[in-house]
Amino acid sequence: MRSDARRVVVTGAGIACAAGDRMGELWAAARDGRSPGVRRPELALDGMPGPLAAFHDRLDVRAELGREGLRALDRTGRLAAVAARRALADAGWPAAALAGTEVGLVLGTMFGSLRTICEFDRRGVSAGPSYAKPLDFVNSVINAAAGQTAIRFDLRGVNATVSGDLTSGLQALAYAADLVRGGRATALLAGGADELCAESLYGFHRLGLLCGAGSERAVPLGRPAEGMVLAEGAALLMLESLASARARGATILAEILGHGSAYDPGRGAGAHHLAAAVAGAVRSALQDADRPAGAIDCVSLAANGTHLDAAETAGVGRGLSRPGPVPALAAKAATGETLGAAGALQTLFAIESLRNRRLPGIPGLDPGAAPALAAGGGTSTLEGSTALVTAVGLQGKAAALVAEVAPQTTDHDRRA
Amino acid sequence: MSERIVITGLGLVTPVGVGREEAWRALLAGCCGIREVESFDATGFTSRLGAEVRGFEPAGLLARIDPAGVGRASQFAAVAARLALTDAGLPTVADPERAGVAMGTTSGEPREIEDFDDRWLAADYEGVRGEFVNRYRCASIPEVVASEAGFRGLNIMIPTACAAGNYAIAYAFDALRAGRADVMLAGGADCFSRITYSGFSRLGAIAAERCQPFDRNRQGMVPGEGAGVLTLETWEHAAARGARVYAEIAGYGLSCDAHHMTAADGDGAARAMIQALRDSGHRPEEVSYVSAHGTGTPTNDRLECAAVGRVFGEGAATLPMSSIKSMIGHTMGAASAIEAAVCALAIHEGRVPPTINFSEPDPECPVDCVANECREMPVAVAMSNAYAFGGNNASLMLRAWEAA
Asked: What is residue A46's predicted lDDT score, i.e. its pLDDT?
């Protein structure tokens, strides 16, 4: 049994994405089958169809962060800062308490600030090197959003950025949890952020991963895989030691019990090998959490509507290796593919579903598509307290995390 | 669970040589890898100095991956990893699922973006390679390393800019101690790019004539490129196969200034050093050598020396503290990984590399910078400092290996 100083709990969350700014809102969108993607023909390049994209146009960054210093932050930095502000407030960390404590930040991001980098470079090339903007260069480093967020909220503990492709968010949560378990931190914000831009939309289009002209929504686990809706967003959880949370009387939402990861040296080229990596990540997460497969009450999948879903579901099935279907959640049906934000969003989505005792369902999914999983609908009940959260990368990475909803809070209204 | 983590292999790709032996001999001899930039047209820049890895031919140095399919930083990383495995006498591992990779970088694969931008500006969208996303992602660096090594365990990229190598080594150290792996390849990689070069140029940070850390007349840093990868193992794993041990990782400290993106405040640097000392169980007076961040910019060196003065007190004035950036420039995310390898070699061989181009002491940098000539001296405990954009600070502690 780990001591209270080495147990990792979630005491708050902050999210910002097109599907919702609070988890209740996002979960309702999932239950009601709303899709966040909007066709953006003005972002189409060279014959591609107007991409379905989930920009968070409703987000009033100025109202959220104030005018001061806002120019220094690019889109990824702004999304991360909004999520951090919300998570700090939700977890009950006033600015005064932050000044006396070394709260850290571990931010997962797939691209950092791709748009800023491209704009800096193109200006330098087209106008000459003396016209490239120094401020853009500062934000071009991949850890810029984490650094900017730390400056804004005086986060002087460990400040790290993790870039793990589509597993970035889960890797960030795992890294932060280990810093607490190892006694190197008592409280950290952990999760991730990514912007959405024409450059990334075109890149994913060229990889053939976006929903084509014929589909108006992403259908996770759908066969055939019709593609994903690319989204922007940020999500951060406040992770802290159980001892710290108790000492300050914080509301405990869940406990991070363990995590695991694996890599397919074939770089994901063969679905079978990628599934083996997912299974390995699941098994190592269960071992780390000291829970049998039978203890998992639901799995919160990274499934986004692409070919990766099949490898993920096969790997989860093999990793859990138990009879009967496992209740399954697919947050990306509602959020789109939020890249770095996804791991924290999936974890929160599982916590919310377990607290609601309901499976939100996966709109558009043929019930026969994934027999090992029970996706349910708005009225299916979900019992239990423990979730497995999984993620799979484009080139061979797999990650898994086990979280348990805190019993004392299952009947409370969530604040965020 | 293993308490003691050892360094058993070193792989280096630097502007003064590829491979542990070639690079180490060059650094001890004070060789300078800084020249006029060749890899892109630097016309129009006020300074044109760079530390590039010239004539790099990865194909013959790799066992598994095809270098043509990956970016230049990934090529550096994969070669450094292969060299680190060969150096450790570990061509294959018994249990690949307990073998992992942790890497750091500042810019990932910026040349992939440059190629994309050139085509974008020419409206040549068809010419954008379908694999742009896969090649550009900095996550590809540890993936390519693990594919070269055949490692199936932990695989993480920690892109905390110019302190990233130390972050990656620190991550691997904790992962090994927590029993998540038996072997880790850990380090950093970055490649030279017009993006990084223009950025430092626009910040006015690049020296026009030479890189001369701690010198009163120092003018700035020089961008560089390369990779450093360390083979790290639990002592039990290394002992079971009779591996040679260079040194032991003794601990680390991380902190964040939370002050300014590019201007350090010195307080965070001191906190990272103090944490690293505490974590390693060493007192300041036990430290024999400090590998400085020492970029050669007026501000960095002044603040770093002030922070070292606060941490080491009166002993700071006589503490040997050199910067190999005087010879290989600032290799960004690779810098602290290469410097950790240098600390391990300093401990193993009892020699420390110099700070070259030093002529006039600066009263604001009252340290022994091992001026111009390498020094033979026993190194029992070494500290390696790294500071980054974003106010990220990381100090790593290494010590001589003595089996208990």
From this structure: 78
B293, B305, B343, B348: the active-site residue: B293
Read off φ and ψ for residue B384, nearest 5 degrees. Answer: -120, 120
* pLDDT single digits (tens) B226-261: 999 999 999 999 999 999 999 999 999 999 988 888
Q: Is the pLDDT of residue B85 over 70?
A: yes
Of B202, B258, B271, the CB nearest to A132: B202
- What is the distance between the alpha carbons of residues B171 and B163, in angstroms, rounded to a whole number? 13
Mark yes or no for CB contact B390/A121 under 8 Å: no
Helix axes A75-90, A144-153, angle to 10 degrees: 40
> What is the set of domains in chain A, with CATH numbers?
8-247 (3.40.47.10), 258-405 (3.40.47.10)
Bond prior to A224 in cis (omega within 30° of 0)? yes
Known catalytic membership, residue B260: no
The residues pairing with A107 across neighbouring beta strands, listed in sequence order, are A161, A191
Asked if A127 and B121 count as a contact pair (C-beta separation under 8 A), the reply is no
* CA B319 to chain centroid: 21
Q: Does the annotation mark B348 as catalytic?
A: no
Neighbouring residues of A373: CB distance < 8 A, sequence distance ≥ 6: A221, A299, A301, A313, A316, A317, A325, A326, A327, A328
Q: CA angle A176-B80-B228, nearest 5°?
A: 55
pLDDT higher than threshold 80 for residue B1? no
Residue of B nearest to A156 (CA): B256
Mean pLDDT taken over chain A: 92
CA Rg value for chain B: 20
Q: Which residue of B has its CA nearest to A170?
A: B156
CA B166 to each of CA B160, B246, B279: distance values in angstroms, whole numbers, following the listed order: 9, 17, 15
N-terminal to C-terminal alpha carbon distance within chain A: 30
The answer, yes or no, to whether residue A415 has pLDDT greater than 60, is no
What's the CA gap between A82 and A70, in Å, rounded?
A: 11
Q: Render pLDDT for B100-156 as a digit per residue (tens, 0 to 9).
A: 999 999 999 999 999 999 999 999 988 887 788 889 999 999 999 999 999 999 999
Q: How far apart, in whole angstroms, are the C-alpha atoms of residue B359 and residue A309?
A: 62
Give the whole-angstrom CA distance, residue A243 versus residue A248. Answer: 9
- Judge contact between B179 and B1, C-beta under 8 A: yes
A381 exposure class (CB count in 10 Å sphere: 0-12, 13-18, 19+):
exposed
What chain B holds in terms of domains, given with CATH numbers, is 5-240 (3.40.47.10), 252-399 (3.40.47.10)
Residue A413: predicted pLDDT? 45
E-assigned strands of A75-229? 104-108, 159-162, 187-194
CB-CB: which of B64, B155, B262 is closest to A138?
B262
Query: Tokens standing for A151?
Result: 């400056």
pLDDT in tens, A233-254: 999 999 999 999 999 999 999 9
Distance CA(B348)–CA(B87), nearest Å, equals 14
